[in-house]
Amino acid sequence: MLSLDFICQHPDLFRTLLLRRGVSVPLEDILQLATERRELVTQNDEAHRSLKELKMAVRSVPVAEKDTCNRQMKAIRADIQQREKQLVTVEQHLRDLLMSVPNLPHASVVERADEEDIEVRRWGEPASFAFDPRPHWELGSRLGIIDSDTAVKIAGSRFVMLKGMGARLERALISFMLDIHTRQHGYTEVLLPQLVKEELMFAAGQFPKFADQSYRCEADELVLNPTAEVPLVGLHSQSILPVFALPRRYVAWTTAYRREAGSASRHNRGLLRLHQFNKVELFQYVDPQESYRSLEEMVQHAEKILQLLGLPYRVVELTARHLSFSAAKTVDIEVWMAGQGEYVEVSSVSNCEAFQARRANIKYRGTGKKHTGYVHTLNGSGLAVGRTMAAILEAYQQKNGAISIPDVLQSYMGTAIISPEEGI
């Protein structure tokens, strides 16, 4: 959520920045409600002062005048109660409008007419094959390690079942990523609930915009986790953190659940766009002065996983219109899919600045200081496990359909190859 004071003091700048994202918001309604709120608060403050004065005065007035004073106090109390009811309505309406406004783009985020994201760098060279490389869904099906047909019988489309070496490879990737991020990058591992409160969906910026994309347990007012970012925001909601304890770095493996209702994408086969998928998430709470240095650091942490796996990739900065709802700046990492001949997003690392912290009321206090400020939050995939697995299958495929296992995963897998005979 954005600062109401900032919106009221800089309405033209606010409108301009949101137009960079291609978003138009009811600014006039926000300003009008802010004015009404301010007037109601001012009127009630004045009424409380008048009431206090009357309470002091009634002690010394003649008995004959006490009834008049009491009637005046009763009328003032009634007015205060009426305005408090109006204030609740105005504040709720104002909050609903503010909750629907996305974050403002950072000054460094590019706005382009063609909306093409900005390539920053590439790492690694796509391998050349002496045969036509196959996409991972064909490889997995032939090896018997990816079974979409059975998953459809169980849960419907856009679900997948992994078997044998496929299930082991998924588990190996999760363990490998967690080990690297905890042992080399200084993150604390947390194992989180799969269900989250609706209030945390609002705090993280998933609601109200993506309410139709969630799986809900309405009787309990809980939502299946769409990304570990949501419960990770909740770790320190309604908290004041000492500045000396920042940054706080967390890594979590969770299964994510997304309805993908109405989504249109050519990346909808195999492991690329599912309703249920595993993801290793990186999350940091940081001092605002350090957040953009932390953004660069988190991108490098995600890149390290691909480098160790020997998977070529490219890094791109998103343009303003492609930013997620909560992000002020986002850097995507796209891995090369050898069987498809294109780069596909495998990690999205975002600095949300104080946007989520305001919604979740997460603050920090400097050493020896009374005043508090909002922390900055950053999140990023470290990595999307299914997509990483897909890239491995396509990059390490052999002519006979076997898959070589990257060196760093062989100890987790207990083998150096998945062969057609050993897949299941």
List the helices and strands and how they pair.
Elements: H1 4-9, H2 11-20, H3 27-57, H4 63-99, E1 118-123, H5 136-143, E2 146-147, H6 148-155, E3 161-162, H7 165-183, E4 188-189, E5 195-197, H8 198-204, E6 216-217, E7 222-224, H9 229-234, E8 239-242, E9 248-257, E10 276-286, H10 291-309, E11 313-317, E12 329-337, E13 342-351, H11 355-360, E14 362-365, E15 372-374, E16 376-384, H12 385-395, E17 403-404, H13 410-413, E18 417-418
Parallel strand pairs: 4-9, 8-14
Antiparallel strand pairs: 1-11, 2-3, 5-7, 6-7, 9-10, 10-16, 11-12, 12-13, 13-16, 14-15, 17-18
Helix pairs in contact: 3-4, 5-12, 7-12
Describe the structure.
- The protein is an alpha+beta fold.
- The protein has helices at residues 4-9, 11-20, 27-57, 63-99, 136-143, 148-155, 165-183, 198-204, 229-234, 291-309, 355-360, 385-395, 410-413, and strands at residues 118-123, 146-147, 161-162, 188-189, 195-197, 216-217, 222-224, 239-242, 248-257, 276-286, 313-317, 329-337, 342-351, 362-365, 372-374, 376-384, 403-404, 417-418.
- The strands form five sheets. Strands 1-11-12-13-16-10-9-4 form an eight-stranded mixed β-sheet. Strands 5-7-6 form a three-stranded antiparallel β-sheet. A three-stranded mixed β-sheet has the order 8-14-15.
- Strand 14 (362-365) and strand 15 form a beta hairpin.
- Helix 3 runs antiparallel to helix 4 (63-99), helix 5 (136-143) packs across helix 12 (385-395) and helix 7 crosses helix 12 (385-395).
- The longest helix is centred in the N-terminal third of the chain and has 37 residues, at 63-99.
